[in-house]
Each structure stands twice: as C-alpha cells, then as structure tokens.
Amino acid sequence: MKYLIILIFVSINVNANESLRLAELAEQQILEGNPTNGILLALEALPKNIYKPDKAYVVEAEIQLLNGLLQLHEYYENFDWFSTALDSENKYDVSFYTGNYRWRQALANQDRCVAYVEQHFNASEGRRDSYTMVIVSYESSQKVRKWAKSYVKNIARTFGIRKYLGRGILVGGYNGRGNGNLKYLNMPAVLLESLFATNPRHAKWIKNEVNQLQLAFILFKSIKKYFPQGGRICFSVGHKYKYYPRNDRGAHVYGGGRESEYAEIILKQAQSLIEYKLLQGYFVPPLIKKLQDFVKSNLDLPALEFDEALYDKTSELLLALSSQQLIDYAREIIPRCSFTEEQRVRFALPKLKSQRLIESGEKLARRGRIKSATRKFKQARKLDHCLQFNPEEKARWIAAQVEIYNAQKLAEKMKMPAARAKFKKAMRIYSKFRINPDKETRRIAADELIKQGEKFAEAGKIETALIKFQTAITINVNLNFDPHEKVRKLAIKPLLRKGMYAIRQANMKQALIINVKTHVVDPKGLYSENFWSSLCWYGSLYGHAKSVMNACTKTVELKSENESYRDSRGLARALTGDFKGAIADFEFYMKHAKLKHKLVKREQWLSQLREGINPFTETVIQGLLGK
Question: Does residue 245 have a cis bond before it (omega within 30 degrees)?
C-alpha cells in the first residue's frame, strides 16, 4: 500500500510538471501572437473535465487559456474584413487532394473543380531574398495570369515586399520545376510562393496567426473575384501527403517548423472563409455576441437578469465563467481543433491514439487490406472529431496509389503491358481515379526516355541521345519536338559552360579546343554566339587573334548589326594586320555604339590605324585586360 501511494504521488508530480511545461509553451506562443496555438497547448495541459480529472490541474494553464482567448477575441473582432465574406450566399465547397502531384491533378479533373490552388513557400540558400511570386503553367490562360497577378499585388501591398521581377508571376516555374504540379489540370490553376520560409522576417509572418489570416483572406478574396459563379475549389498542400517520398515536408522555416505545416494551416483557414465556416462553426459577427450567448446559457440566468451592459467586454464575460466553462468555451470556438502532426512533434506532445490508428490504417491500406484499414480509420474518427474524411475512400485511395506507383516504375522500365494492368487495377480499387491506362503508360515511358536522352546529350553522347528522343516520339505521338534540335541544344550547354570558364581562367588553349567542338555541335551558332564573341575578344588580347578569327567572323555573320561583335572582330583584324577591315568594323561601332564613353578610345585607335600604325601595344592590351 505504501509503495502504491508513492507511485501515485510521483505520477501526479510528473503530470503536474508536464502541465507546467505546456503552460509555459502556451505563454510563449501567445506572446509571439499565436493565440490558437496557445489555447491548444493550455487545453493539453488542463483536464478535459475538472470534476473527473485525467491529469493534474495547474492554475498557470488556466491563466494562459484565458490570455489566449482574450487575444483570439481581439484578433477576430478587429478584423472587420471578415464581414465581406457575408455579402452573398455561400456558393463554394473546398476539397483537399493528396498523392503525388500528377494524380492529385487527375482527381481534381475528375471532380471538375473550377479552380486549383497549391500552397508553397519559397526558399533560398541565403536569408535576404524577399519577394512574392506565383507560378503558372506554360499553357495557362490570360485569366489565370490576371488572377495570379492580382494575388501577388495584394500580398506585396499587405506585407510591403516586392513582386518577383516586377510582375510577380513565373510562367512554367524554375526551368520547368513547378510546371509539372499544374500542367495536367483542366481548370485555372496557380502555385503560390507567397513568402520566403528562409527569410527571418517572412518566417515571422508565416508563423504569426494574424498574418496567416491575412494570407488566407487574400487567397479567399482572389477566388471570389475571379470565380464568382461558385463551385468546387481544389486545394493542394505542397510537399505533404505524397505517396513517394512520404516524408517530404518542404523547406525548413527559419526558426523552426517546415513549409508544408504552415501551408496547410493557411489553406485550412482559407477553406473556412470560402465555406463560410470560422471558429468551429459559422461566422457570428461580432464574436462577442457568441460569447454573450455562451455566458447566458451557462450561467443559467433568465433573459431579463442578463445585463448586456454589465457584460459588454470580453474580459468581463470570460471572467464570469468557471474553469470548466472556460475549457468548454475554448473547445467550442477554437479555429483549429487540433495541432498538426508536425506541431505535436515540435511541442514534444505525445502521439494521439487517433494518429496511431491512422498510421496503422495507412500501413494496412498500402498492403492492400482495405477492410482492415477502413476499420482503423473509423476508430480514429470516433476518437477525434477533427478528422474529416471518408474512411473507406481514404483506404482505397492509399491502396490505389501503391498500384499507381508500381505502374509508373514498370512504365519507366518499358514494361508496358504490366504497367497498363497496374493502372487498371488502381482504377478498380478507387473508382474516382479515372485515366487512360495506355496513354498514361506511353506518357511515362516517353518521359523517362527523354530524361535519359537529356543526360546522354549533356554528356556528349549525341547518337545515343538522338535514339532515345526518337523512340520517345514513337511511343508518345503527342510529343512535338525536333530530336536533332533538342540534342543540339542540350549538348552545347556543358560545352559553353566549360568554354566560358576557360576564357575566365585565360586558358586559351582549352577554349580553342572547345571552340572546335561547338562548331561541330552547333554549326549554325544558334546557341554559341555569345561564347564565340567572348572568345574573339579575349583570344585576340591573349595573342591568339589568328586562331579565333573564325569565331569572330561567325558572330558577325549571325548578327551583322551587332556593334559589339563588330568591335571584337575589329580588334582581331587589327592584331592580324588587316587594318582596312579593322577600320570598317570600328567605324561601324562608332556609328551604332550605345556606350558613348567607349568612343574616345575607338577614335584614337581609328586615327592610328588610318596612319598605318597598330594601336594595340602591349600597354594598351594589358589595359584592356584590366591589368
């Protein structure tokens, strides 16, 4: 008996210490301007039922719960722009899409969404990048681009940052990266890179609840403006919920947290605005009216005895509640009824039983045990009212993604019949997933061949790359490109990089070897003219004027009106004794030059050349080299 009492005492003490830790975290979150996090942490610290406690009660946690509710009321009561959401009837519903990006797009097409939004945050190696941007696909319409520009304009104005390259939109993403997230969609679509996760100032906004509401409201307002007819809006959380890699959560946010965690919070808030839901229910402006109603019903006062003048302030209303009533009210109005998975890890909170059930269900679904997985998901939903999904549909979609992934890998290995069979099986498992198995298999196989071809072309294996591209076009007849031209463009890039590096290092021997190769790969000079012009100028200054003359002539043949190309050739001609040709080139430069401060030198060179004197002495050459 003695040991049992000691054990109970130790357990209660440990429990109280954990509640105090959570109360401290709640205080920290509230001070940082995140009342919802603060309230959730305080609720974690407090027992659900004061009269039948499941953990120790600590007054510090109740104080932070009260502080969090006061701050939450202040935020929502001061944002009068919420009232704009009530100026017409609700015409929208929101769906979130999971899986790899290609298949999210297929499901969104199946659901005939009117618009598709994927939320990301930008990242860079440095901390100074500070702009807002939206990515749209190469095929995007003018309406989509106007929508994107409008969103960027409001973000830039609200947060006082610049728009990317002055326009704010990036068509096709970074060298195509980002385009794949949108290119298969049949509806207007945008990929938002609202702020920089790696910028300390932006990270503070990303984590702050008021700024999160601003981001959500700007998105909501843009949807309402460009899609007034209503309909289904598709949301996609960038990086998260992919089948592979499953642990991708995007960039690290400065100071803690991951990109997808905050992207999801903002999209959930935007969903509440779009669907007219806010604070665990509906818009009830002003919020104090909802609190007054709660106090009326819980204090059990007759209507005539409730003096609204006495209870006209949030603080007075909240202080009128008992500890249990305060907990109940917080659970009723909290904007998010639970932490995200990432937040639970960050705050060192134990994994919920519902989350363990979901993880177990997901494992079962990936093994094809759909009925068992569905049972687990149903149990999880019973335990956690925050979970909003169809258990069987979730199990079937996870199981289908396994088959889709296998189909993709088979198609990449050119095992076409087996890949088609896997796609068909996926469609049988999850009826909402509808694609053309043959077309999809051919697309994946062709894309894989193109990737292989690109690698071979960049490695200089021209013939192998050409075969890969030609085979890809045979497999997927929808591809429209010239294999020879694609090989040429890819093969020349590494040569030009090496060539420019050799010039910067004054390694003219290596630069001249690369010059010969560029003439073989790119005989028309469609991609090599800048390299040839640099080689012409610096090769001449480093004593190889005769060797680089071919490059000089080629650049002028390509663009005879370019004064810089004529200037470089003039130098090479003078150094090889062709004074007449040099005079013609420098005279052309004098007539067309945009940089007027360079004319004085050219005038001096022309005077000497006309007298038959080579103006390019060793001293002049060293000066031109900046030595």
Answer: yes
For residue 86, pLDDT beyond 60: no
Instruction: Please give the pLDDT value at position 284.
Output: 43
Give the pLDDT confidence score for residue 20 in this predicted structure: 95
Please report which helix (H) or strand (E) contains residue 7, including its range. Answer: helix 2-31
CB 535 within 8 A of CB 515: yes
- Domain definitions of the chain by residue range: 16-85+288-337, 91-275, 353-372+388-434, 440-481, 503-624
Q: Is the full-model pTM beyond 0.90?
A: no
Q: Using CA atoms, how far apart are residues 469 and 482, in angstroms rounded to an integer?
A: 9
Mean pLDDT of all residues in 556-569? 93
Supply the pLDDT for residue 337: 76
State pLDDT tens for residues 105-144: 999 999 999 999 999 999 999 899 999 999 999 999 999 9
pLDDT band for 282, please (50, 70, 90 cuts): very low
User: Please, which residues have CB within 8 angstroms of residue 40's CB and are 6 or more apart in sequence?
Assistant: 334, 336, 338, 339
* Average of per-residue pLDDT across 261-266: 95
93 - beta bridge partners?
232
Residue 368, Cβ neighbours under 10 Å: how many?
15
Which residues, other chains included, contact 143 with Cβ-Cβ below 8 Å and sequence gap of 6+?
188, 226
Rounded CA-CA distance 230/463 in Å is 53
CATH homologous superfamily of 91-275 equals Zn-dependent exopeptidases (3.40.630.40)
Look up the CATH superfamily of 503-624: Tetratricopeptide repeat domain (1.25.40.10)
Judged by DSSP in three states, 131 sits in strand
Q: How far apart are CA 266 and CA 250, in angstroms?
A: 15
Mean pLDDT of 331-352: 86
Q: Is 199 exposed, middle or buried (0-12, 13-18, 19+ CB in 10 A)?
A: buried
Q: Average pLDDT for residues 186-204, to the nearest whole number?
A: 97
Average pLDDT, the chain: 89
With beta carbons less than 8 A apart as the criterion, state whether 317 and 288 touch.
Answer: yes
- The amino acid at residue 244 is Y
> In terms of Cα–Cα distance, which of 82, 48, 52 is closest to 65?
48
Helix (H) or strand (E) holding 237: strand 231-237
Interacting residues of 174 by C-beta distance below 8 A, sequence separation 6+: none
**Contacts with 84 (C-beta within 8 Å, 6 or more apart), sequence order:** 221
